[in-house]
Amino acid sequence: MDWLLERFLSAGENAAFIHHGTPFTYCQMAERISSLELQLQQAGVGHHDTVVVLADYAPEVVCMLLALVRLRAIVVPMTRGSVIEEGEVLGISGCTRRIAFAPDGIAWEMETHSVSVTNPLIAEFRQTKSPGLVLFSSGSTGKPKGMLYDFWRVMDRFRVQRAPVVAVPFLLLDHFGGINTILAITSSLGTVVTTEDRLLPTICAAIEKYKVDLLPTTPSFLTMLAATDLPKRYDLSSLKRITYGTETMPQATLDRIRERFPEAELQQTYGLSEVGVLRSQSRADGSLWVRIGGQGFETQVRDGILWIRSEFRMLGYLNAPTGFDDAGWFNTQDRVEVDGEWFKILGRVTDVINVAGQKLYPAEVEDVILQLPNVVDVVVKGEKHTLLGQIVVAHVALSESEPLPALRARVRSACRSKLTDYKVPAKVVLMEAAMYSARFKKIRK
């Protein structure tokens, strides 16, 4: 990765990060990577090591990850908001070293932390002496899966330098989208603006203060933002592009965000941890149709399900059979509609609700309910039923208190006017607990 260090040095005093209000330049990045590489090498760290790094976004953390890459170690990023427990991570991936950063992202300690795991995929990969990356699925559809990548292959797609941006990273470092975001911003010599938390006011304040022009986020975050007056209280006019992905976007949320940010480009992204993040382009008509692909990616649709073949794919699961067929195609489990070169993502097959043999996707019901006054957000789930198999249940969050019978009547009336009967919620309940994961995705299970 000499090409990346040379690029960093060429940017000199340009800010790579603004961390806790303090700039950290690309020259400092290059110097710190080299310094950490030497320090780790002297401690005996090398390609034989699997290193857990417990941290969140910070320049020192990113420098540490890149120093470990240069030493060809296998890196396992974790955050304190990780969706799975550290013990479960170590039980699947193993570990020889553990580096834990303080909450400020500056001070860190390394300890020998030997957790021996016999894994044929890792053993075979170590023979290549390439740096590795291990990330974990959220486990929302079952046991979390450990995914192994060749870190050099992940980085290769960023050799072509793109236009620099100022961005607030949203997805965490233990998520492929988080790693992808950091590499995309820094390889293009943009600026990463870190925040102390991911609360709505904190993100908006950072956008205003540092003139952020790119916000990569999730539909759930945008739904919450659209339900507030924050776009009026803060100057968010610097935003040139808002990207969203990882889950289905309700059309109602997209319409509200377009209204509040008329000058910003809204771009739907698409990617999976197993195959990487594809290049994408949203159709200009304000709909949810998107064109995806790009160099290194191929797409095809089989029986309404999207399949992807990727040069940037994971090498395999550590604790599950490979998800690829013999020709290297991966079943995304996403059902899609097709209009020429455009796709519309309907939802995951695993999220389908089956009411007496008739199937529906939660997003189509959520979109109707989100259009109602006083509704901030909604999560639609399937609930087991003795006779019907499942029934539709809508968990609704309100901006102001409202009698539950009145809310139920409004929701059912709106759904009956736009949906077939079996899609109308049999139950409407108030959202009493957080319905989002640490990755700001709706929890449907």
What structural keywords apply?
26 strands; alpha/beta; single chain; Rossmann fold; 29% helix; 445 residues
Topology readout:
Elements: H1 2-11, E1 15-19, E2 22-25, H2 26-42, E3 50-54, H3 59-70, E4 74-78, H4 86-93, E5 95-101, E6 108-115, H5 120-126, E7 132-136, E8 146-150, H6 151-156, E9 166-167, H7 176-187, E10 191-193, H8 200-210, E11 214-217, H9 219-226, H10 230-233, E12 241-244, H11 251-260, E13 265-268, E14 270-272, E15 276-282, E16 290-293, E17 297-302, E18 305-310, E19 316-317, E20 330-339, E21 342-348, E22 353-355, E23 358-360, H12 362-370, E24 375-385, E25 389-398, H13 404-418, E26 427-430
Parallel strand pairs: 1-10, 3-4, 3-5, 4-7, 9-10, 11-12, 12-13, 25-26
Antiparallel strand pairs: 1-2, 5-6, 7-8, 8-19, 14-15, 15-16, 17-18, 18-20, 20-21, 22-23, 24-25
Helix pairs in contact: 1-2, 2-3, 9-11
Give the structure's gist in a few sentences.
Residues 364-433 form the AMP-binding enzyme C-terminal domain. With 445 residues, the chain is an alpha/beta fold. 29% of the residues lie in helices and 31% in strands.
Give the terminus-to-terminus CA distance: 41 Å
CATH topology of the domain at 2-155: Rossmann fold
Regarding CATH, which class of the domain at 2-155?
Alpha Beta
How large, in whole angstroms, is the Cα Rg? 22 Å
Helix percent band: 25-40%
CATH superfamily assignment of the domain at 2-155? ANL, N-terminal domain
Tally the helices: what do you get?
13
Largest sheet descriptor: 7 strands, mixed
Which second-level CATH architecture of the domain at 2-155 applies? 3-Layer(aba) Sandwich
Globally, the shape reads globular
Query: How many β strands by DSSP?
Result: 26
Q: Give the mean pLDDT.
A: 90
Give the amount of beta strand, in percent: 25-35%
Stretches where pLDDT is under 50 for at least 5 consecutive residues are none
- Based on helices, strands and strand pairing, what is the structural class? alpha/beta
Sheet with the most strands: spatial strand order: 6-5-3-4-7-8-19
